[in-house]
Design goal:
- This protein has one domain: NAD(P)-binding Rossmann-like Domain (Rossmann fold, 3-Layer(aba) Sandwich), CATH 3.40.50.
- The protein is α/β, with parallel strands linked by helices.
- The protein is globular and about 30 Å long.
- The chain has three helices and four strands, in the order βαβαβαβ.
Amino acid sequence: MARVLIIGAGGVGNVVVHKCAQVSELFEHITLASRTVSKCEAIAARVREKLGRTIEVAAVDADDVAQTAALIRRVEPDLVINVALPYQD
């Protein structure tokens, strides 16, 4: 069973989270992170309602290497999927 960290809560991130959540025997623990935690929370709520899975959410600015590295150390994922768009301001 794998721990996956998904970075980015846009349209692609939403699909990736749902697809990972559908395969619970492979993706035991899912963390979704982005700059906008409210987007992560909304996606997590939809997954919980639709699939009964709990998704951990976190805040991260993927352009900030130190912040992203700290999140990876904290979550200890087996897989990181980065679907965040670069340089958004």
